[in-house]
């Protein structure tokens, strides 16, 4: 059996499975960060809403991770829209001031969530509005700047 066509087929399937996005491109980097943010946020919300067992240390660690991640994707939006098949609307590049404002609001809300975890033992009733603010920040930016 000739392995070359087989391996080429596997590589092609792998690229199709990941939408052919170069993980080292600005699009690939920000997609990876946004996926990490989504996963982390879902875990925090899941602990507060009873989908996952509430684990205080895991919640604190998740809040810190989310705060760190919230500062990362913006550097991977180049000055000019790339040619890749991005789900970001043209408005990201046309309305940079508003886009950056929403990015800073998310960063402020994740920082506030981390600050809310300083008081132990953690009270999910205190944390829930903080997580909601983070989720609302994500949602408001998506409504303005993401093409669904």
TrEMBL record:
InterPro entries xrefs: Cyt_c/b562, Cyt_c_II, Cyt_c_prime
Domain of life assignment: Bacteria
SUPFAM superfamilies, per database record: Cytochromes (SSF47175)
PROSITE patterns on file: CYTCII (PS51009), PROKAR_LIPOPROTEIN (PS51257)
Keywords, alphabetical: Electron transport, Heme, Iron, Metal-binding, Transport
Protein name: C-type cytochrome
């Amino acid at each position: 059996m000739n392995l070359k066509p087989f391996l080429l087929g596997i590589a092609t399937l792998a690229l199709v499975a990941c939408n052919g996005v170069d993980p080292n491109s600005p699009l690939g980097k920000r997609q990876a960060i946004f996926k990490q943010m989504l996963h982390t946020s879902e875990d925090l919300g899941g602990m507060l809403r009873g989908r996952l067992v509430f684990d205080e240390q895991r919640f604190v660690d998740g809040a810190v991770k989310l705060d760190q991640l919230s500062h990362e994707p913006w550097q991977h939006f180049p000055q000019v829209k790339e040619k890749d098949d991005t789900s970001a609307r043209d408005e990201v590049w046309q309305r940079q001031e508003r886009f950056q404002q929403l990015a800073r609001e998310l960063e402020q809300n994740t920082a506030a969530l981390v600050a809310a975890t300083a008081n132990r033992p953690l009270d999910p009733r205190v944390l829930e509005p903080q997580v909601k603010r983070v989720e609302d920040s994500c949602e408001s930016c998506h409504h303005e700047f993401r093409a669904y």
